[in-house]
Design goal:
The protein is an alpha+beta fold and 445 residues long. It is built from 14 helices and 19 strands. A hairpin with a 5-residue loop joins strand 8 (160-166) and strand 9 (172-176). It binds flavin-adenine dinucleotide.
């Protein structure tokens, strides 16, 4: 435990910003994306470079302060903050540099997805990332990285070339296929366990930035047919087509992003758009960067959120129908949804044991999600999510997406499966034997 005096002295020389309890801005600095999480750290430090990260980590270890590392602050269970410890917040280490000739992006440890998208597109390039631009590159990448281009270009980690990190003992280390390859394997799926990532290098793809994107929406009584239509789109569509099924209280929609030419998209989407007809069809040609911001507001900071997901090989209509009944029954004042994403394509072209990430052999990713504001609904909505997920869990494959695990202290072995978990334990013993980095889905050394 650090005394107030020690913390004030540290703040006086720290290369960056230090926010302590009682300081202006403390209540803003301690907030994370999920409003359900309300913690009071002893200090929030914002280094402006790698030196500051090393200094902060050393101070925390010397004073036995628990360390929480924050990239974009979007951890669902709030793992990027803590009570009484030190939050090392990388939000002063933003920015993405693109080398257009080598098609490489270097993303600093605190960058957000929107920065990577903007910098890559400015050079006519792209890296596949997630669907909400204010999410952190760090947390998303260290867990895997699902998104609208995943069937064409894979998960974000499949495009990762190197990570620079500060390890528990304060060393600066680089991990890639050539340098510390075993660490690089573990960073791609269990990465929050091994150090503080200060930069990421991604390989980029040429991408002109024009996509066909939007959704067809149908009344919920067409659910069975829409599920069949969705399955057909996933099974027979090209990898440029990313369909998502969204089951709401009164309607069901298939959202699509097609990254091929507008002509090819028109052909590939003709059957999907003709069915019904839909009550709404918002599919149109637009810039990729516009599509990448469309969910930002709906998923803004400050709401309460809980979810449970699984990877499945089949999508039985009966199970979706039972979930739809539960979606309609969720408590008033709650945004409840069942979401199903197409899997496969480039994701499946990487061997299952090629990275620590688990779940590449699935055909679909399925998730029950609730967002609300009234804290009185916390219990009911958690229960709603769990009950809804029970309907698809009988079809779940081994492995879970670590970034979707919305509770701290979950069964982490089940995220990776036994063989990978043991391999990760060996890595953890090598790189963080004292478990300094334990505010994550923790691999126990
Ligand atoms: C609105 C929203 C939309 C989302 N959309 C998607 C999506 O489209 N695709 C997808 O795959 N996931 C998505 N997610 C899940 C997201 O990938 C995870 O929540 C991810 O952990 C967020 O990363 P972050 O840096 O913002 O989070 P943080 O809360 O900052 O960190 C998450 C974890 O990573 C660790 N960490 C953060 N930065 C570093 C670092 N530099 N070095 C080492 N460890 C670090 C933290 O300690 C913590 O354990 C979404 C989440 C939200 C809330």
């Amino acid at each position: 435990m650090a005394s107030d005096q020690a913390l004030r002295a540290f703040a006086g020389t720290f290369p960056g910003e230090v926010v302590l309890p009682g300081d202006d801005g403390y209540d803003t600095a301690r907030v994370v994306w999920n409003r359900m999480v309300d913690r009071r750290p002893a200090a929030v430090v914002r280094p402006t470079g790698t030196d500051g990260v090393v200094v902060a980590l050393r101070f925390a270890r010397e004073h036995e302060l628990q360390v929480a590392v924050r990239g974009g602050g979007h951890s669902l269970p709030g793992l990027s903050t803590c009570d009484d410890g030190m939050v090392i917040d990388l939000s002063r280490m933003r920015g993405v540099d693109v080398d257009a000739e080598r098609r490489i992006a270097r993303s600093h440890g605190g960058a957000l997805l929107g920065e990577l998208d903007d910098a890559a597109q400015a050079a006519g390039l792209v890296c596949p990332v997630g669907v909400v631009s204010h999410t952190g590159v760090a947390g998303l990448t260290l867990g895997g990285g699902m998104g609208r281009l995943q069937r064409r270009y894979g998960l974000t980690i499949d495009n990762l070339r190197a990570v620079e990190l500060v390890t528990a003992d304060g060393r600066r280390v680089r991990a890639s296929e050539d340098e510390n390859p075993e660490l690089f394997w573990g960073l791609r799926g269990a990465g929050a366990n091994f150090g503080i990532a200060t930069a990421f290098e991604f390989a980029l793809h040429p991408f002109d930035g024009t996509v066909t994107h939007g959704a067809v929406t149908h009344p919920i009584d067409r659910l069975d047919d829409v599920v069949a239509l969705f399955r057909e789109a996933v099974e027979s569509g090209p990898d440029q087509l990313m369909p998502t099924l969204l089951v709401g209280r009164t309607d069901v929609s298939i959202s699509v992003l097609h990254s091929g030419s507008p002509e090819q998209a028109e052909r590939d989407l003709a059957e999907l758009r003709a069915f019904g007809p839909p009550i709404a069809d918002t599919i149109e040609v637009k810039p990729y960067l516009v599509a990448q911001h469309l969910a930002d507001e709906e998923m803004e900071w400050g709401h309460r959120f809980y979810m449970k997901s699984a990877f499945v090989r089949e999508l039985p209509t009966d199970a979706v129908r039972r979930c739809a009944e539960l979606v309609a029954d969720a408590s008033a004042g709650t945004e409840s949804v069942l979401s199903v994403w197409a899997w496969g394509g480039a994701i499946a072209s990487v061997p299952e044991d090629g990275t620590a990430f688990s779940g590449r052999e699935a055909s679909y990713w399925i998730s029950a999600e609730a967002q609300w504001d009234d804290l009185q609904l916390d219990g009911a909505n958690r229960e709603w999510v769990r009950n809804t997920a029970e309907e698809f869990m009988p079809y779940a494959l081994d492995g879970r997406y670590v970034n979707d695990v919305a509770e701290a202290g979950a069964d982490v072995r089940s995220v990776y499966g036994d063989a990978k978990y043991e391999r990760l334990v060996a890595l953890k013993r090598a790189w963080d034997p004292d478990n300094v980095f334990r505010l994550n889905q923790n691999i126990q050394p």
